[in-house]
Design goal:
The protein is of the alpha+beta class. It has 2 domains: 2-100, Sandwich (Immunoglobulin-like); 122-468, no CATH class. It has 13 helices and 17 strands. The strands form 3 sheets. A 10-stranded antiparallel sheet has the order 10-9-8-17-16-15-14-13-12-11, sandwiched between helices. Strands 3-2-5-6 form a 4-stranded antiparallel sheet, with no helix packed on it. A 3-stranded mixed sheet has the order 4-1-7, with no helix packed on it. Strand 8 (141-152) and strand 9 (157-169) form a beta hairpin.
Length: 469
């Protein structure tokens, strides 16, 4: 009896030690402003001299999974306009919030330099675009990332997908259409309740795919439409609005695709944008320009075919490093400006803002790599008979806010690994169902949900279960 008891204890100890040997370190905390105690959103949290990292959510909170080989390294917490926080990972105290102090450079000191240095916002931006060939990757690479795609109306989530991604890019000099690829590797969460109210998707699908389609001949009533037909229409509509190709290969990838014909930040950039120097800030000890983006003489358009995405004005901010003119961050909005677009936006969405975009970059081995994408746009889903172009019903329920967030956490340069990955079949389709792989997600860095999103996701999962029953 005693022998069996000792054998049990010995086996239990082996299991515990084996688990600890394989376990990863998780760092969890909150980033706040030192003076105001307000949370700092989108602060960068990463392991020094690596590409392993994450960002803080709207509550300032983050969760970072540290691979075992980095447990003796240093964690860095930085945000534009603040002093950087650093500490050894072994000394990290999860019970204490991280407070960052404001750090602003003196604008006058920075501008008293040689005459050859650009001093206006337009000139600084033109220099930054010219320097892209030096600041963006010249060699092929892979990036691993995490996607959270969510759609909601004014009250609740209707759709959520969380996926692991792989991005391949041959170089900045190559065209994105043929030399940039995205693959959806695994799915973490997938809930979809849009089938109950996505009549506009069905209408758009019929209008764009069926010859001689007339709205008046169709009764837009959910009870008259087969579920299979509606699901097919939803997927078709999703790819027009929300396919990853639209973000990475189109005009919205402002920096990477600035060398393409018709690029928003291309050779005719100043016809559609004006850039005004606001101040100089500090990021991780480096000075950077804060430049305001505003309208110019021409409207901005996205050239998205069957969707009317023209007639906008751009506004926002762009942050550019002072020393090498590398672009660190872009905050970009497109608002309705032409008469046609203002009328459309007011009638359909009751808002002038049609596109919100945030792109941040990380510096690694003297090159700038994409770190985080945030893209938000409204999408019609329920309007009834649009023959009069005056939607019926509650406006707040006739469209969804669609948000895509992408966090990149790993960069791979090894040519053998890249070639091996390219031999596989790639698919950027986030809509295809995939089995859940629990082991894959154990040590994969993801975006931490905000408290609001966490509750909405919980409610969505409960409603999805009831709906299936």
């Amino acid at each position: 009896m005693k022998y069996n008891y000792l054998k049990y204890i010995f086996g239990l100890l082996i299991s515990v030690f084996s688990f600890n040997a394989e376990a990863q370190t998780e760092l969890k905390s909150k980033v706040s402003d030192f003076l105001t105690y307000m949370p700092i959103e989108s602060a960068s949290i990463y392991i020094e001299n690596s590409t392993v990292g994450t960002i803080s959510n709207k509550d300032g909170k983050f969760l970072l999974v540290v691979p075992r080989e980095h447990e003796n390294d240093t964690i860095v917490v930085s945000s534009i306009g603040y002093k950087t926080f650093k500490t050894a990972i072994v000394d990290f105290d999860a019970s204490m919030d991280i407070f960052l102090e404001e750090d602003i450079a003196a604008l006058d000191e920075v501008l008293i330099v040689a005459d050859s240095r650009p001093k206006t916002g337009n000139d600084i931006m033109l220099r930054a675009i010219k320097k892209l060939e030096n600041n963006l990757p010249e060699q092929p690479y892979l990036q691993k990332g995490f996607l959270r795609h969510k759609e909601r109306n004014s009250k609740e989530f209707k759709w959520l997908i969380e996926s692991a991604l792989t991005l391949y890019d041959s170089s900045y000099a190559s065209g994105a259409t043929d030399n940039l690829k995205i693959n959806v590797d695994e799915n973490r969460k997938s809930y979809d309740l849009r089938e109950v109210d996505s009549l506009f998707s069905y209408y758009s699908y019929l209008k764009n795919t069926k010859r001689n389609f007339k709205m008046k001949s169709k009764k837009m009533d959910r009870d008259t439409i087969k579920t299979s037909s509606l699901v097919e229409a939803i997927k078709w509509n999703d790819r027009r609005f929300n396919g990853l190709e639209n973000i990475f290969k189109g005009r919205l990838n402002l920096v990477r695709n600035s060398n393409l014909d018709g690029a928003l930040f291309g050779k005719n950039m100043l016809n559609k944008h004006q850039f005004d120097l606001d101040t100089v800030l500090v990021d991780n000890g480096k000075k950077l320009y804060k430049i305001k983006i505003s309208k110019s003489r021409d409207f901005v358009g996205l050239n998205t075919g069957s969707i009317f995405n023209e007639g906008y004005e751009a506004n926002g901010w762009i942050y550019i490093y002072w020393d090498n003119f590398a672009i660190k961050k872009i905050e970009y909005e497109l608002t309705a400006a032409s008469d046609a677009q203002k009328s459309r936006s007011k009638i359909l969405f009751n808002s002038k803002v049609n596109h919100k975009l945030i792109i941040t970059y990380m510096e690694y081995q003297d090159k700038m790599y994409p770190n985080y994408f945030y893209y938000e746009t409204p999408k019609l889903v329920k309007v009834g008979d649009r023959s009069s172009d005056k939607p019926k019903g509650n406006k707040e329920e006739q469209y969804y806010y669609t948000v895509q967030e992408i966090l990149f956490t790993e960069i791979i340069h090894d040519s053998e690994t890249i070639n091996k990955a390219l031999q596989k079949e790639w698919s950027e389709d986030i809509f295809s169902p995939r089995p859940y792989n629990k082991e894959f997600w154990k040590n994969y860095n993801v975006l931490l949900e905000s408290e609001e999103d966490e509750q909405l996701i919980y409610d969505l999962s409960r409603r999805a279960s009831l709906y299936k029953q």
